[in-house]
UniProtKB/TrEMBL annotation:
<keyword id="KW-0732">Signal</keyword>
<feature type="domain" description="Transglycosylase SLT">
    <location>
        <begin position="494"/>
        <end position="600"/>
    </location>
</feature>
<feature type="domain" description="Lytic transglycosylase superhelical linker">
    <location>
        <begin position="418"/>
        <end position="474"/>
    </location>
</feature>
<dbReference type="GO" id="GO:0016020">
    <property type="term" value="C:membrane"/>
</dbReference>
<protein>
    <submittedName>
        <fullName>Soluble lytic murein transglycosylase</fullName>
    </submittedName>
</protein>
<dbReference type="InterPro" id="IPR023346">
    <property type="entry name" value="Lysozyme-like_dom_sf"/>
</dbReference>
<dbReference type="GO" id="GO:0042597">
    <property type="term" value="C:periplasmic space"/>
</dbReference>
<dbReference type="InterPro" id="IPR037061">
    <property type="entry name" value="Lytic_TGlycoase_superhlx_L_sf"/>
</dbReference>
<dbReference type="InterPro" id="IPR000189">
    <property type="entry name" value="Transglyc_AS"/>
</dbReference>
<comment type="similarity">
    <text>Belongs to the transglycosylase Slt family.</text>
</comment>
<dbReference type="InterPro" id="IPR012289">
    <property type="entry name" value="Lytic_TGlycosylase_superhlx_L"/>
</dbReference>
<dbReference type="InterPro" id="IPR008258">
    <property type="entry name" value="Transglycosylase_SLT_dom_1"/>
</dbReference>
<dbReference type="Pfam" id="PF14718">
    <property type="entry name" value="SLT_L"/>
</dbReference>
<dbReference type="GO" id="GO:0004553">
    <property type="term" value="F:hydrolase activity, hydrolyzing O-glycosyl compounds"/>
</dbReference>
<dbReference type="GO" id="GO:0008933">
    <property type="term" value="F:peptidoglycan lytic transglycosylase activity"/>
</dbReference>
<dbReference type="Pfam" id="PF01464">
    <property type="entry name" value="SLT"/>
</dbReference>
<dbReference type="InterPro" id="IPR008939">
    <property type="entry name" value="Lytic_TGlycosylase_superhlx_U"/>
</dbReference>
Amino acid sequence: MAQSAPIAARAAAPAAQASVSAAPVVMPAMPVIPLDQAQLLLAAQKATQRGDPQPALDALRQLKGTLLEPWVAYWAIKPTLSEATQADFDAFARAYPHTYVLDRLRNDWLLELGKREDWTDFNRVYPHFIMRDDPQVQCYDLQSQFVTQHADVTAQVFKLWMDQRYGGVGCNSAASALLQDGAMPREMLWQRMRRFYEDGRAKQARDLLAPFLPTGSWRILAQTDSDAVRYLLDVVRRGPSAAIANADQRQYLVLALLSMARQDPGQAARLLQENFSALPSRDRAQIWGRIGLSAALGLQPEAARWYARMGQADPAFVPSTTVLEWQVRAALRAQDWPLVRSATRTLIDQGDKDLSWRYWHARALEKLGHPIEGRALLAEVANPWDFYGQLATDALGMKVSLPASLPPAPLSVVAQQAARPGLQRSLALFSIDLRNEAVREWNFSLRGLDNQQMQGAAELACQQQLWDRCINTSERVTGGVDIAQRYAMPYREAIGKASAAEDVNEAFLYGLIRQESRFIANIKSWVGASGLMQLMPATAKLVARKIGLTDYSHDQIADVGVNVQLGSAYLGGLLQQFDGSEALAAAGYNAGPGRPLRWRNMGLPDQPLLPGAIFAENIPIPETRDYVKRVLANATVYAAILSGKPQSLKARLGDVGSPDAMLASNQGNRP
């Protein structure tokens, strides 16, 4: 494997440190799992996934005292939790204290105890729970407080319940308990019902909440979702005033309009404006917000105008975060800077820490004649590492320059991390390709590390060529950046060769691979994409045929050289198709080339060409939107590393629009 210059230089540094040390540092041996043990472990893990504990029980007897015994014990008990007792859990806790799998089992067991409503044992286990990152367990804890202590937890349960798109087993249980007792007001039930409808989860809302409504509600709710048009036209025919005057009927009417807004925003807008303008202002504002959201997701030109109707209906109405975020995006497409300013201000005031809203708020301030305030906010956002930090740097009239890298972690610190049992178990799991389990064990083991220890753990991962752990662990270090870790550059020979052969910018290629696979050569996604560039089998076969790779076979797809050759050729074709736009090509690589063909026309008729940043922010698929931002930000950093010169993300993004608009723009920019 070819090493990058930064990594190669780093390899020599610890040796130099050791040579002048009075007591040379000895690295602990890396774990090696014998073949017979690996076969037992893999069989146990696979069987557990299908609910069969027996292979793990059999393996446990043979693997007593080995490094991965705790995992085998976990695989043995996990499928049986529905029948387990507190004594079973306590025995596991005594046998495997201070391990990741114990806390993982605590999470699973707390969910089971909550389901059983066994609050005595739940309250014994919960104080020892370390991760506490499962909102369903948090909701069960609140339900336990309500049942056992008569605590007032309604506001906390409601917030968690509203934050979970699907509600979730624990939050639905806690909310049901409060509703059953009368501790949660009917108004909160209707608010959650509306959120379910906004999110397209009407059937779940019916099944969960209809029992708390008057008899016959389930049938009416079904009609408001599956046949919203007929329901609304029936209300119009009978006269809307009676429905609006009745508290429950008004709620059904709003739900039907929310369903219609999701399915056909144009028709919902007409009905709301022409037939239901007598609804309370807050109801109308919420419906206009959902109409605007649907239009924004569909990149419709009316989106910003419909969003404006939300504020006109009730200036004090505060919509959901999703509705607000898409209001910003629709306003950006329309270049409606007052709407951008007001929506981003609301997001910031709500405590949203996303740099994107601060960046766009700053740009709106500049556009609206407040340059001093705008530049001050841009200065807070600017940094060389992420998408909006780089854009803020550009907006301040500077280019992206990389600061000096942190010095390498001392070899003694790397050795200290290599000796930790959790990281040893993680390395063992990686060695037998149990990647999901290995990543969880690794991340749990990073708790409580200081910056130098975190950097040492990242260096350990780099040395073991676990590039995803190398990069992701290094990203947790604060107070500086170890550039050789965070922007690792393995496979220089293969990537450089492919870049030159396919005329694809090497920094762009590195930026894309960093996001696709984190340089893990043998990784395979759940949909079947493989290798560094995450190629689908059909795509790899098609590209191989196109470039004349006649001896290609599917078993070569994870080979580094072949994978990068095929992926670079495919990416090069996308760049040609999209007039050299890296933003469109990255979107096409992630979402397929058909979608960006539609998305590139998202500009309004009088503004067909949009800045690349506005295009990226308006990509309707969240995964692709995040992907494009990360790939282009990565590429900007790699370009600075490879060239040694300052870079501009704005220039790399360019403008995006229809082929004719982009051609006209390019011709206009020629000297």
